[in-house]
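It is worth pausing here to work through a concrete case rather than discussing structure prediction in the abstract. The textbook approach is simple: state the sequence, then state the predicted structure, then interpret. We follow exactly that order.
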Amino acid sequence: MPWFPDFISAVEQARMETRSAARADPVAQYVRALNEGTIHDLETAWPGEVIVHDPRSGTIHGHRRLRTFVEDNKSWLAGHHARIETVASTRVKGRAVVELLAHLTGNGPDVAWPVAVVAESTDAFSVVFRTYCSQQPVDGRRHVRPPILKAGQERPSDVVGRYHAALADGDVNAIVDTFAPDGYYREPIGPHRTHRGADELRSFFTRRFSAGGGIGLTPCVVTDDRVRCAVEYNCTRWGREDLPAQAGLAIYERRPDGLLAAARVYDDIELPDGRR
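Step two, the predicted structure:
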């Protein structure tokens, strides 16, 4: 039998290792909890609050609701034989944005489902997870997502700022010029809706702006590591029509020359007449 103080020391060491791993990669720990159906490591790593903003389940607050949410997600992922891969991550102090691609093979045709998760910790004890995606690849419908965040003070700069300005103005040429020659835009519904190169981008954005103007995005939180810039936003306008504010996130990946290598979008925005 180990001496009791040694046992306590070992437990504390395990707790510290769990917390260290969580701080290093909180999204990986969160995804692991969803796959395994247990919140033990989340509670150990973040003994304060763990809050989840999920497109399907809304806001999850409190350990009992979190436990139910995690257990339900484990069942859902298992039922779809989900396999999740990491696409890219963007990190600044206290915040990480991780892009995932969930491969769902359980029912019908295989589905590649883009999902992005933001993990933000304002202190050493608490964490907030915000998940963004389109639900159309899963159930064939769009689900209007109310705002999660309020408008922020920070605005994207350099090529990302120019992209947002061109998007708001509905300026096809200006927005295409923000992309590198082989740059691409990926729609929220999956990799099969990727538009690469000037001709495809021009055709895509011409259709996007056919409602008589640009698209108004209000930035809420900007996470920028100078390679990738993640912008959490509320979409409030499409063409000439104002929209109920709808939450989303976009990742803008820069090339060394300062142009966009990629824009990957995670939202479920729907117009009043159902156009997309």
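Step three, interpretation. Confidence is low (pLDDT under 50) at residues 6-17. The CA atoms of residues 218 and 234 lie 5 Å apart.
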